[in-house]
Specification:
By secondary structure, the chain is of the alpha/beta class. β13, α6 and β14 form a beta-alpha-beta unit. The relative contact order is 0.17.
Length: 261
C-alpha cells in the first residue's frame, strides 16, 4: 500500500465475529484475513467488552498487538496497556448502596481481575455462582467506599424487578442472563476514538466488524460498519455491509471483496 490515505483502522469484535462461539476458537480464514490486512499496512485491533485480564490471553495467543478492551475503557497499543479506566465511582457506589438496601446480592470487582468482593453470600444464594471463572472474596466488613476505584458490579436483581433499582440507568449496564445485571463499561466507540487519538488515525478510515447487539455502540455513522451474516438483525439494520457468516469465511470474503488486501 503506497498511499497513507489508503491506510485503514480495523476493529474486530471477538465472540461470534472472529471466533466460533461453540468452540471459542478463531476462525482460520479470519486469522488469515488479519494477517493479510497487517501485511497490506493497515492498523488492526480487537474491540471487545472483555476485561483486560480476559482479553489479553486471546490477543497474545493470536498475535494481536492492539486492542480496545474493557468495553472501551482499556487501550492496549503495540503490546502495552496504555489505559484501563474503572466505571464511574460515585454512581457505582450509589447503585451498590441502593441494591444492598433493597436486599439484593452484590458482587464488586475492585480491580481488573477475576476477583469479586461481597459482604455475604446473598448473590450466590439468590442466583447461584457466576458462569465464568471467579474468585469470591466474602468479607462481612467489605465496603466499596474503602476503595478508590470500582471496575464492575454484579447485582442479583431479576429482569422483572429492574424498576425497583431506581438508579439502574445512571450507569452503563448489560444483562446476559435473566437473574442478574452487570454494570460495566459499554463504550466501544469512545475507546476506538481514543485509540485513534493515540495512533494518529481518523474516524473516516475506521472499519468495524461485529455480530451482536453489544456491538451496536460502535456501529457509528462515522465508521464503515460490517455486520456478520450470523449477527443480530438489529445490528444488521445499522450496517453499511453485511458479510457472510463468520464460519463461512465472512471476514476474509468481505476484506477480499472490498480490496483491502
Amino acid at each position: 500500500m503506497d498511499k497513507k490515505q489508503d491506510k485503514k483502522y480495523f476493529f474486530f469484535d471477538i465472540d461470534g465475529t472472529l471466533t466460533d462461539r461453540t468452540t471459542g476458537l478463531i476462525v482460520p480464514s479470519a486469522r488469515e484475513a488479519v494477517r493479510k490486512l497487517e501485511e497490506a499496512g493497515h492498523f488492526v485491533s480487537l474491540a471487545t467488552g472483555r476485561a483486560f485480564y480476559k482479553a489479553v490471553p486471546f490477543a497474545e495467543k493470536h498475535g494481536f498487538k492492539n486492542m480496545v478492551c474493557n468495553g472501551g475503557h482499556g487501550i492496549y497499543i503495540d503490546g502495552s496497556l496504555r489505559e484501563n479506566r474503572p466505571i464511574d465511582y460515585d454512581r457505582a457506589l450509589a447503585i451498590y448502596r441502593e441494591a444492598i438496601s433493597l436486599g439484593y446480592g452484590v458482587l464488586a470487582a475492585m480491580d481488573d481481575s477475576k476477583k469479586v468482593y461481597a459482604r455475604d453470600f446473598r448473590f450466590i444464594e439468590q442466583v447461584g455462582p457466576r458462569q465464568e471463572p471467579t474468585t469470591y472474596i466474602i468479607d462481612d466488613t467489605f465496603d466499596p467506599a474503602d476503595y478508590d476505584k470500582i471496575y464492575k458490579l454484579y447485582i442479583s436483581v431479576p429482569e422483572e424487578e429492574e424498576d425497583r433499582l431506581t438508579l439502574l440507568d445512571t450507569l452503563g449496564h448489560m444483562r446476559f442472563v435473566r437473574d442478574y445485571v452487570m454494570f460495566q463499561p459499554d463504550e466501544k466507540k469512545d475507546g476506538i476514538l481514543r485509540m485513534l487519538e493515540l495512533t494518529g488515525g481518523d474516524p473516516s478510515s475506521v472499519v468495524v466488524f461485529g455480530d451482536d447487539t453489544n456491538d451496536m455502540v460502535m456501529f457509528d455513522p462515522a465508521f464503515y460498519c460490517v455486520a456478520m451474516g450470523n449477527g443480530s438483525e438489529e445490528l444488521k439494520a445499522k450496517a453499511d455491509y453485511i458479510a457472510a457468516r463468520n464460519l463461512e469465511d465472512g471476514i476474509y470474503r468481505a476484506c477480499q471483496e472490498h480490496g483491502w488486501f
